Amino acid sequence: MNTKGQNKRGYLMLAVLWLAYVTFVMNWVAGSSLTPQITNTFFGGPVDPLISEVVNYSITTARVFANILAAVVIMRLGPKKAAGLSIGLLMMGLVAIYIPNYWGYIFARMIMAMGGSMIIVYMNPFVSNYIANQKVKLGINAANTATYNIGTFIVAVLFTLFAEQLVSDWKLTMTFFASITVILFIIWLLGAEDFKVEQPTGNTEAYGYKQAFKDGFIWRFGLAFASFLTLYVLSLVSFKNIFDQYTLLNGSVTNLFISSGAIVGTLAGIAIGNKGGPRKPTLLIVGICMVSSFALALAFANAIPVVSYILLTISGFFMFVQYPIFLNLPHELKNMTPQKLTIMFGLFWAIAYAGQTIANIIWSFILGNFGYVPSLFFFIAVASVYCFLIPTLPETRPKEIRLKKVA
């Protein structure tokens, strides 16, 4: 077996999946940033917050179903075809732009979101199959978790520097972001290879969705991440327009600071994670820091904007100090296989996005009916759930393991 050549092919596929998800994020965030222009095209003016947020609801709802479906698809089609299908679905973002009906536009974006959700699930079996070294694995998983930040950062920079040009014709702007997917799809068709994801036989216990639904770890893990996503996704997607409307902050600049802080935080998370220290205390401390700094940023948003920008950067930093460590927890559990990882992450992402979608709907309802300040209290309360659930997760780096490493 040509292991060296196989590793090169593996890294190529991981790179394409990484770029595909970055492109998906750019398409999603750019669409959210252009929500006023898009809704004006379809409705001729401003709409209720529930209507303006319906694209984000539909995208996250589609992701719930896609995450559960991902494991079934990869078992039937194999990794190459399954991942290729997910990249192909991203191209519906290009189709959506030219559909003349708003609900047709939403439906096409939902299909695009299904592709994005399947990609984030498929990253795990590809990493498990091609990467054996735990430190390298943590670094690659960290790079995968940074995809959302990279995509958001690129869009934030472009909308900060070229806001007038990008806003003037939303269809042209969205076409640019969506077209990149076509190139990645062609590269995948030419360069990808297959491998087996079946669970090994022998003493390894069978693990399917029946076992996953009964696994308390996945539910606690998923609900904790739903809380995190409420803080993270709303801060970058929904809060851009909210900051512009209700505060002295510039929404594009806030996205720039949050995502740039998150990129630096990812590097810090890799360094901390590779030290092999206990996971739960680290995640709890960092979680408290990210929620409290964001809450303080909201408190200063209409008083001292500079302080808010600094606090938002700090919050973004702490968000992604914990992110690679948190999402690497299943990889650190005993007897893990590519199939088990696919099923666990499929259900995990479904729980996380379902929880975040419900929180998003309630938040926008409170915003539209009770106002900005009550919506913030709800937002911070939901984000704080993360800190309460972290202590309930298993410690994947117990004391005896760390002592062996020292010895």
Tell me about this structure.
The chain crosses the membrane at residues 12-34, 54-75, 82-100, 106-127, 148-167, 173-191, 217-239, 251-271, 283-301, 307-329, 341-366, 372-393. It holds the Pfam family MFS_1. Keywords: Membrane, Transmembrane, Transmembrane helix, Transport. This is MFS transporter. With 407 residues, the chain is an all-alpha fold. The chain has a single domain, classed as Growth Hormone, Chain: A (Up-down Bundle). The chain is built from 20 helices and no strands. It has helices at residues 3-33, 35-43, 49-52, 54-77, 79-90, 92-97, 102-130, 134-145, 147-161, 163-168, 170-191, 209-213, 216-246, 251-274, 279-299, 305-327, 329-332, 338-370, 372-389, 399-406. Helix 1 crosses helix 13 (216-246), helix 7 runs antiparallel to helix 8 (134-145) and helix 9 (147-161) runs antiparallel to helix 14. The longest helix has 33 residues, at 338-370. It is globular, with a radius of gyration of 21 Å. The model is unreliable at 400-407 (pLDDT under 50).
